[in-house]
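Predict structure. Input: Conjugal transfer protein TrbB, 344 residues.
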Amino acid sequence: MKPSLQEQAYARMLEGLRRDLGVCMKEFENPKLQELMLNPDGKLWREVAGEGMSDTGHRISVIEAEQLFGSLAGILEIELNAANPILECELPINGARFEGLVPPIVQRPTFAIRIQNSLGITLADFERRGVLTHRDDPANKRRAEQRPFVELAAGKSHREIIELAVQRRLNILIIGGTGSGKTTALNAMTHSIATLNPSHRILTIEDTREVRCASENIVQMRTDGSVDMTRLLKASLRLRPDRIIAGEVRDKAALALLNMWNTGHPGGLATIHADDPYGGLVRLERLIEQNPGIRANPQEIAEAVDLCVFIEKEEEVLAGRKIREIAVVERYDPVSKQYVLTNV
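Output follows.
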C-alpha cells in the first residue's frame, strides 16, 4: 500500500533529522554508548559503559546545532524560542531521551542525549564487569575505615580542608553578607574541582554570569524571565552532571537544590546571604518555605549540607575579605531543635 502524503512528509522529516544529527549518528552505532552531550563551546562529549566520559573530538557549530533543534521542534510541532528555551523529548529515530537548551538560558545550543540500554545486560554480566560488589572487595574495607570529616580535617589549614572537601565531594554552602566575596570564594573552589577532578562534568546555574571555571566539560546556564532557577535545576538533572554549582540561592529554588543534594548529586556548591554558618542553614529554611504549602525539614537540610564556609569583609587583609569559619554540619538535634556544627 502506497504511503499517504502525510506519511511521506513525516519520513522526509525523519531523514532530515538524521542528516542534522550528523556525527551523532555515528556515535549511536556504539552499543556501549550511554550519553552524548553537546556543550555550549561546540564540543561533543560521550560517556561509554566501562570507559567513562571523554571528548569525542567532534565539533558542532552553532548553525548545525540550530538546524538540529529546528528539525526536532518541527517534527514534534512545538515552538522553541527565547520564551520557551527548553526542549525535552524522545528522539523519534531511536527513542533516546533528549534534553536541549537554547539561548538565553545558555550561551549557545546545548543538549544531552541519554541512550536506552540495548545490551540486554544480566546480573551475570554485572558480576563479570565488576558492577556487583564482592564481600572481599577492597573498597568495602576502605569505606569501613573512613573517618569522619571532622577528624580528617583536624590540624589542616583552611585551604587543605576545602580541597579535602572537594575531593570527598561534600556539598559546600558559602555564606556571607553583600560584597563579602562569596562568589570569589566559589570561583576558587570551582577551580579546585577542575584541578582535582578534571573529568567531572560541571553545570552552573546563575542569575548573572559570575562563575568562572577552568573545566573543559562545563555547561553554564542562566535564569531568564521565562525560566527560573528551580526550572533550570530540574533540567540540569537530565544533562548528566557530576557536580552542580547553583551560584547564589535567594528564593524558593532552595528546595530544588536541597532535593538534588539529597538524591545522588554530591559535590555541589552554592552561596547564600547570612551572618554566620548557623544563620546560613536557617536562611535555607526560610527560602524553602517560600514554596506554597512546604515546611522546611531541618534534618533534611543537615543531611544535604556537609560544610559551611563563612566569609566576611576584612579591611586589615590585602584581599579585603577573609574566611572566618569553616563548620562541618554534623546533624540536626530534634530535642534541642538546633543544628549541630563543628568548627574545623
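The mean pLDDT is 89.
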